[in-house]
Amino acid sequence: MNPAFVPRRSVLYMPGSNARAIAKAKELPVDSVILDLEDSVADTQKELARRQACEAVQAGGFGLREIVIRVNGDGTPWHDDDVASVIAAAPAGIVLPKVESGDVVKRIAGAIEAKNPQSEMKIWCMLETPRGVLACNEILQSHPRLAVAVMGTSDLTRDLRALHTATRLPLITSLGLCLLAARAHGVCILDGVHLNLDDEPGFAEACRQGRALGFDGKTLVHPRQIPTCNAAFSPTPEEVETARVIVSAFASAREKGQGVVVVGGRLVEELHVIEAKRVLGIHQALTQAE
C-alpha cells in the first residue's frame, strides 16, 4: 500500500459491547473500523465494551483494515480508564468525542508519549459542537499525532437547532469551516453519518455531496452502507485514465520546454498535475489493498 495514502473511504462504527459485530468487522469490505465505547454503548456495558475492544485490537486479525477506538468524553466517569486502556492496547488511533480545544489533543498526545514514546498511534478528533467547529483551526494544528477529523453531524445538527434536510444546507457552513482547517493543516477529514437506513437514495446522495465538498470518506452506522460509500469515494475508471493522460502529457510538454499543455480541449497546468498524481496515488493504494 502506498504509505502516503491511507484509504478511509468507509469508516464503520461498531459497538465495543457487541462481540459478534466486532468479529464480523474482520470480513467486511470497509477501510476503517471505529470500535465504540461511547454513544452506542449503554452505561451498564461501558466496562465490557472497553475490555472487548482492547482485546480485539490486541488479538488482531483485521487484515489491512485500520482499527481505532472511540473513548468516552472528557469529564465522564469512564474517560480516564478508557484512555489508559486504549493506549495500552495500541490501536491505530484513539478517537476523541466532542473536542473543543487543542489542549485536549495535547493532553492525550502527552499521555501516549509518556506510556510509549515510540507508539505510532494517531489521534482522531470529532468536531460535533458549535464550539468545536469554531475552534477547528486551532484544534487541527495542535499536535503532529492528530491525523483525522470526524464530523459529528447528528450532534451538531441538534446543537444548532437545525433541521435534518436532504441537502444538508443547515450544515454547509460548519462543514466548510472544518474542511478548510483540515486542508490547511494536512489532516484527513470524514463526513458524518446518515442514520436513515431505509433511505438508500438519500444516503447515496449524501455520499456524492460529501465527495463533491472534498471529504476523504464518510462514517457509517451499518455494513449495508459500505459498498455505496466505497464507490462514491473511489476514483472512477474515467478519473484514473484522465489522470494518467494528464501526467503523461505534462511530462512530455516539460521535456519540450513547455509549461502548459492542452488535454481534451482543457488547459493543463502544474496544479492539475498535482491533483492527477493524488488521484493515481489513491487508485494505487486501493488496488494494492484489494
Characterize this entry briefly.
The longest helix has 20 residues, at 270-289. With 290 residues, the chain is of the alpha/beta class.
Largest sheet: 8 strands, parallel, barrel
Q: CATH H-level name of the largest domain... which superfamily?
A: Phosphoenolpyruvate-binding domains
Question: What name does the CATH topology of the largest domain carry?
Answer: TIM Barrel
Mean pLDDT: 94
Tell me the strand percentage band.
15-25%
CATH C-level class of the largest domain is Alpha Beta
Radius of gyration: 20 Å
Number of helices: 12
Residue stretches low in confidence (pLDDT < 50, at least 5 long) are none
Instruction: Give the topology string: H per helix, E per strand.
Output: EHEHEHEHEHHEHHEHEHHEEH
How helix-rich are the residues, as a percent range? 40-55%
Q: Which structural class best describes the helix and strand composition?
A: alpha/beta
Distance between the termini: 10 Å
- General shape: globular
State the assembly state of the protein chains.
Answer: single chain
Task: Tell me the number of structural domains.
Answer: 2
Task: Count the beta strands.
Answer: 10
At CATH level 2, the architecture of the largest domain is: Alpha-Beta Barrel
Strand order of the largest sheet: 1-2-3-4-5-6-7-8
